[in-house]
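Researcher: Go.
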Amino acid sequence: MAEERGYPARFGFGTTPTEQELAGFFAIAPDGRRLPPGRGTYTQGQAIYADQCAACHGDKLEGWARGMAMPPEMAAMGDGRLVGGRGTLATPMPVLTVESYWPYATTLWDYIKRAMPQATPGSLSDEDVYSLVAYILGEANILPKSAAVDADSLPAVTMPNRDGFVPDPRPELEIYR
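Model: Structure:
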């Protein structure tokens, strides 16, 4: 297929990745496949959030710390707000947050694990990520603050805008299997 497009199937440089190198790449499916073991609570997440997340997302998940200049790269992505915005997507000024936009709680876990904290992405333990998810979903009133989050409970969370998306008709990707 590559040759049909005018370039070789192999380029003759690079190396084949090892199993250990490939272990760093993952994708968490909406149904929770590939979620690792671990567990987190709202209280644990509250402490981790204060230490690792509040500088960018605000003390109360409200967005970039007020009174500070927002870096241009953050301005392009919104204001870093994590909660609020329900019912705003069809308005002229939609507020895109975990609460208003994200269709699956497992996507929140996946994103935090891959991309946060911004200065050291991928540095949080699985338990830290479960705890942050419990905290964010608790603050958004999606889960009770007493709920624990793990690989079994997270896929069962119904996000407020889960039905606000058109299903993807493409075949499932191998990475999700």
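Model: The chain has six helices and two strands.
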